[in-house]
Design brief:
about 300 residues, 4-stranded antiparallel beta sheet
């Protein structure tokens, strides 16, 4: 079967790992306490590829979560955070009177941090959009493609925070987002940073399908500008946030131990060796994370934000 990169459509992808969805479902349930078997039932295996042209990581088949899947995730208080570093950065780019489109606005956290701007949020999750509406946020339950058909060049800034990595029809999504931007306006995407520690977290089910279906690096975000003929205005890397300090410490210890004993790195590893290494890493990380209290000791964090000018 010919595998095309979902970003640049080239056939230059390298297979990195093949994952049993049965194993994935088991690890997911142990980690978060609910089943994803209905979301992955039609594919016994998924494969993870990295495009050798643009460095985008992607899964095939591209399995995405259902409404029930996201409703379960929304029960966790950490899933829709009230504030993020990328929100603060985005606000520095917004001028008074700018019209903002927030694609995948979740419960409307970014909207509540704007002052006097024209704002529209798009959100397909019923539970998330209901939360946003209760907070007085204007939310439309439709895709960016449907919205673009009626709102061409309407917005000064179109943004999507932690959304692009969930999208299967990637090129259509980006084109529709650009269609909504006024000439000279900005398109802003914030995604998990594959160049940072997040890609090394062992058995990180939230960085796998049916949650994330693509992995983004600085190179792939730069390549996006070339694919769509737009200007890369800025790239902003988040410094490790307090909420991820423990996770980073555990990951660093796991990587140290894994390398020391000579265990191959895998996205999903259910072996007893991996289990023991994770246990040991959790204990050792209690000391390491104390050194991360000082911001000067912290590395790149969870997210990277790319800003493009149309």
């Amino acid at each position: 079967m010919v595998i095309h990169c979902p970003l640049d459509a080239t056939m230059n992808a390298r297979l990195i790992e093949r994952i049993s969805t049965d194993s994935l479902a088991s690890v997911f349930e142990k980690s978060l306490g609910f089943s994803i078997r209905g979301d992955v039932a039609h594919a016994p295996w998924i494969e993870f590829y990295v495009c050798q042209t643009c460095s985008l990581g992607f899964f095939n088949p591209s399995l995405v979560g259902s409404e029930d899947f996201y409703r379960e995730l929304s029960r966790f208080s950490w899933y829709y955070l009230n504030d993020k570093a990328e929100y603060a950065y985005a606000r520095t780019l917004i001028k008074p009177g700018d019209a903002i489109l927030d694609v995948g606005c979740g419960s409307g956290a970014f909207a509540r941090r704007l002052c006097g701007n024209k704002y529209v949020g798009l959100e397909l999750s019923r539970s998330a959009s209901q939360q946003a509406v209760r907070q007085g946020v204007e939310v439309v339950s439709e895709t960016i493609e449907a919205h673009a058909a009626r709102n061409r060049e309407r917005y000064d800034i179109v943004c999507a925070f932690q959304v692009l990595e969930h999208v299967t029809n990637l090129r259509d999504f980006v084109r529709a987002s650009l269609d909504c931007v006024k000439p000279g306006g900005l398109l802003l995407y914030s995604v998990p940073n594959t160049d940072g520690f997040i890609s090394l977290v062992p058995n990180n089910v939230l960085n796998l399908p049916p949650h994330h279906v693509t992995w983004w690096s600085t190179k792939s975000l730069e390549h996006l500008a070339k694919c769509f003929g737009i200007e890369l205005f800025a790239i902003e890397h988040e410094i490790l946030d307090e909420i991820h300090r423990r996770l980073y410490a555990v990951t660093l210890m796991y990587e140290s131990l894994r390398n020391f004993v000579g265990v191959e790195r895998r996205l999903l590893d259910t072996s007893i060796t991996s289990h023991l290494l994770r246990k040991a890493s959790g204990l050792a990380a209690r000391l390491l994370e104390k050194g991360l209290i000082d911001l000067r000791a912290r590395p790149l964090g969870h997210s990277v934000t790319a800003v493009y000018r149309k």
